[in-house]
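S1.2 Input.
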Amino acid sequence: MDGCWNPWHGCKKYSEGCKNCYVYRRDESIGKNPSIIEKNKDFDLPLKKKRDGSYKIPDGETVFTCMTSDFFIEEADLWRDEIWEIIKERSNVFFMIITKRIERFLECIPDDWGDGYDNVGIICTVENQRQCDIRLPIFMKMPIKYKFIGCEPLLTEINMEKYIDKSILQVSCGGESGPEARKCDYNWVLSIREQCIRKGVPFHFKQTGANFIKDGKQYRIERKLQSKQAKKANIDT
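S1.3 Output.
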């Protein structure tokens, strides 16, 4: 079972993939400023327990961490050490951290990181060729035990084959959601899949996005159907 933990909320738009950020869309719809980074009331959620003394997040769960911000954003520098301590204490929970700011990685890890914690995976996102060429050379050199790449939202064709190897545990692809979603072409998805096959890296097609192109035809796909349609394609490896 997967869970979610957002120790802080709010983010600063950083690259092309941020244009139609769902956090901005949601916050602005309720009159909230999404660029203000604040600690959440669930800052220490992995340590919280139920009345029976068991953890609210049970052992063995995978927890996607900081989904309404970026774990390595500068504004959270004062809080991050405490979060690392929580992650260390909950060693039987696997924390998945997604980031666009991989260049800050080395200045944001704890002193005892070594070659990585056994319960932490890092997902480096690359939304187009430009960000692929910037981020992946950095990411591939980082001391991380569990490395993942997320092409989300996938905005262009991407050639990452010269960067990736079997140290990448999975590459996932997904189109952009929301009313202003930019197109995601199925040919881009298939191209990345073929690159992964050649390099021996597992591939996952996560969602079509709302504006999906296949065989030259454009399809508007409802949010609730985007992951289902991707699954129907049956192209995971």
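S1.4 Remarks. The radius of gyration is 18 Å.
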